[in-house]
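Q: Predict the assembly, please.
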Amino acid sequence: MAYSNKVIDHYENPRNVGSLDQNDPQVGTGIVGAPECGDVMKLQIRVDEQGRVTDAKFKTFGCGSAIASSSLATEWVKGRTLEEAEQLKNTEIVKELALPPVKIHCSVLAEDAVRAAIADVRRKQETRTGVAAGAR
Amino acid sequence: MAQKLIYLDNAATTPVDPRVLEAMLPYYRENFGNSASRNHQFGWVAEEATENARKQVAAVINADPKEIVWTSGSTESNNLAILGAARMYADKGRHVVTSLIEHKAVIDPCKFLQSQGYEVTFLQPNNKGRVSVEQVREALRPDTVLVSLMFANNEIGTIHPIPEIGALCHEKGVLFHTDATQAFGKVPVDVEAMQIDLLSLSAHKIYGPKGVGALYVRRKKPRVRLEPVIYGGGHERGMRSGTLNVPGIVGFGEAARIAKEEMPAESKRLAGLRDRMWAGLSEHLTDIARNGDPQHCLPNLLNVSFLYVEGESLMMGFSDIAVSSGSACTSASLEPSYVLKNIGLGDDLAHSSIRFSMGRFTTTDEVDYTIKSVVRTVNHLRAMSPLYEMAQAGIDLSKVQWQHH
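A: Predicted assembly structure:
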């Protein structure tokens, strides 16, 4: 099975590989998948006071399509608000990377990773506002 | 293809040796006869050719030429051996012994037998892929008619204790079948010394053409009889009907002749390349593991797990090198290799494994180039692997609560 040029490009030159401080209150972390399934994605976002994604990083264990899906997802969520980032659909990833049917699960995993990261940062923010309100 | 590709997947198939192709060509052209035509020159020439090839193949395994039955390949040979023996000796018993890491061409006929009311014992090999003679002894029952264990495993290269199992089977009066597809032409195979009753062979793994194989069927002590799987004109002593693939068989014979002649030197050379590959990878990479049994293995095969990176993405990093992966990310099932799982590798390690299989045309330079490419790719992928990052941070990956997809 041949890979699309875009998958190869993301594989060879992955965007935004790396890690953000998981304990930073501005950072949301999503880890999805399992080693025995052959895919684990860690996707992190940093959100500013206005709720906009200023940075995104990923690390992925998985096939080339999984790496490309998560790399692309980090590119797309940067600059978006959390509400906008939440709209990211796996079908857009499938289309952009020209993923074949057997690789659709890679795009689903990337979408799940984005959602998990958003949920994580929201949880942190709620806790913070909760703490702040209680202190008042 | 613009760039030169390196082929390290010789356990999957091999290129036809030019000498083999040369030997075959006349049998497509002027000597095109049907070897079953008894009344004219065309048939006689074809028959002489298939009988000569029969001698050549028999010589490699120390068999009588009359004991060779031509087939379309090892899958057919395995089906004929297992289904043919089980059906022929059904009155004696309906129990078969095999292992969990056989090729699908053995496992699936055995499963079919189960559906027909037979009982099959699937032995669990040790963590190096080896079944012991004691395990076989314990599995034998009064109604056991057949033991089928591969000579060497196609994914990890482990060689079972074949002579010991053969002796046990003969002592107990049970037929012994072995799928020698991978071993044939690489390690000595002797049906007499090893007391083998049925043995499957394939031409395309030894630089012969695809679509040709053979089943060795013992004629004396004991005389093995098989119920055919394919019925028709009664070719091959009634065991396998169908017009013989004369050019293919000629090619198989020539490939066997070359393999026998070159095996002593070639096996040493291949083992040297295999050891060079392992030494090179071990020198430059941490967290890698060799799968299989280094003490009992094929000279040309090396199966390695590269921890924290996934096999398919690894192969993508050296797309100019052809290898196989234990990961089945490309298949619909997403299930990794059952062979690796059944020797106790976790699914994660099975997903991280690569099989390198060297061949007659593999050079030292190719091995060295491969080592460099693999090392570079593993480092590239570990830099983006969350598992590697966690392991470096001292996290026990087996204790993490993963979100199963």
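The mean pLDDT of chain B is 95. The first helix of chain B runs from residue 18 to 24.
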